[in-house]
Amino acid sequence: MRKKIIAGNWKMNYCVNKAEDFVNEIKDAINTDEVDVVICPNFVALDRLSDLLDGTNIKLGAQNVYFEDKGAYTGETSVCMLASVGVNYCIVGHSERRQYFGETDEIVNKKAKKLLEKDINPIVCVGETLEEREANTMFDVVEKQVRESLDGIEEAQMKRNVVIAYEPIWAIGTGKTATAEQANEMCRFIREVVSKMYNESVAQAVRIQYGGSVKPANANEILNMSDIDGALVGGASLTNDFVAIVNY
Ligand code: 13P
Q1: pTM here?
Q2: Nearest to 91 by CA among 139, 132, 52, 124
Q3: What ligand 1 atom has the least distance to the C-alpha of 173?
Q4: What stretch of H or E contains 125?
Q5: Ligand 1 shell residues, CB under 6 Å
Q6: What percent of the chain has pLDDT over 90?
Q7: What is the CATH number of domain 4-246?
């Protein structure tokens, strides 16, 4: 039985003080061991939230990382730096990074592998655009993203550490959620791709989240689908709605 994982992707929101206030407000209500709960604030809030979350079941996640160990890469943050402030998870390949910052599957793959070297669990995002869905090419698009982003990752790491997040771009921040059936269909397809890449035992172990306009009103239905093992929540993770989603 795969344990559900619900992560809040705060994106570029909340300065450090506000981040602390908000976590203080919700942390007792989301401190559960029934699901894995992850909060992904911006880089500058990581250190302070790490202290705040110490001693709780809530894990800390980053939203990005660079794949080199150190050096002249102005503005970038290494895996070692994330590890030094207690980061357990890191989102890679979010569609906003692919769209605005030119992140390719090859880059996502390098980042995921680098994170795994330091035992930080990558949350690898994939998902199609509206045009791709309307043209019915979404399965090809997502299969390519999954194969290239996960290329060369070891079987044991796939089972234990990697999380895949299916986020259809047309459902992100639009209020337009994929139906639970659409979301489950793609998550099941991703599991089949993983089975072809590795084997059925890896496919049954890897956790696949859905993301895109998840809110309290749809969380229960989505999280009860057969192949959806959690949610990557954007806007709703910035409010008390996150408490309701975690306790779906
Ligand atoms: P929303 O929940 O705001 O649609 O964002 C989803 C997302 O991009 C999470 O990574």
Answers
A1: 0.98
A2: 124
A3: 4
A4: strand 121-126
A5: 9, 94, 167, 172-173, 211-214, 232-236
A6: 97
A7: 3.20.20.70
